[in-house]
Amino acid sequence: MDSRARLVQAMSDLMWERGYAATSPREVRERSGVGQGSMYHHFAGKHELALAALERNCADLLPATEALLASTGDPLARIDAYLSREHQPLKGCKVGRMTQDPLVASDPVLLAPVREAFATIHERLVSVIKEAIALGELGDGLDPDELASMITATIQGGYVLAIAAQDSRPFDEARAGARHLLRAVALCAVQDRKEQK
């Protein structure tokens, strides 16, 4: 890993652990093992380095999400797999936690990659939900945008609850609840189709 990549990795980890405001360039240099001259060769300052770290975090998040949601096969099974995948709930989401950092949330440049990552995930979820509706797995009265937002809010809210409790159980329960709700809605769609025949 070259010095630029080490700086971005260190900034990424520190922002995840402490937030943007609480992360100093000195701490980034110490964690990365990169000297001050090299740091400022690659980045004009902390803001530019933070942007690179946020872009990296978002880029790391999306491939696994897209692989699950954009794959072929049963759409409800893909949503279930998305809601079931491994996480580190007590650390929070590398991307979602940045929305709670006041300096990131108030900076349109730093917030842009976070907003775009969530928009991409939302689009993928909406697409899979529409597939499920088209196949009759979900009722056509459901709003795909609303359901996609609920799924994302469940995951992100689960992180908050787990961190507050210092226990992963609320995160797991929130996701399990969303999965059970989707299965119940799918069962209703099947029953409605049978009654219409």
The tally of strands reads 0
CATH architecture: Orthogonal Bundle
- Compute the number of helices: 9
Low-confidence regions: none
GO molecular function: DNA binding
Domain HTH tetR-type: 1-61
DNA-binding region: 24-43
Organism: Propionicimonas paludicola
Offer a few descriptive terms:
transcription; Tetracycline Repressor, domain 2; 197 residues; DNA-binding; HTH_TetR; transcription regulation; TetR_C
3D architecture notes:
This is TetR family transcriptional regulator. One of its GO terms (molecular function) is DNA binding. There is one protein chain. With 197 residues, the chain is mainly alpha-helical. It has helices at 3-18, 25-32, 36-42, 46-69, 75-84, 102-105, 108-134, 144-165, 169-196. Helix 1 (3-18) crosses helix 2, helix 5 (75-84) runs antiparallel to helix 9 and helix 7 (108-134) packs across helix 8 (144-165).
Write the layout of secondary structure elements.
Blueprint: H1 3-18, H2 25-32, H3 36-42, H4 46-69, H5 75-84, H6 102-105, H7 108-134, H8 144-165, H9 169-196
Helix pairs in contact: 1-2, 1-4, 4-7, 5-7, 5-9, 7-8, 8-9
GO molecular function: DNA binding
Pfam families: TetR_C_13 (PF16925), TetR_N (PF00440)
Organism: Propionicimonas paludicola
Short description:
The chain is an all-alpha fold and 197 residues long. The chain is built from 9 helices and no strands.
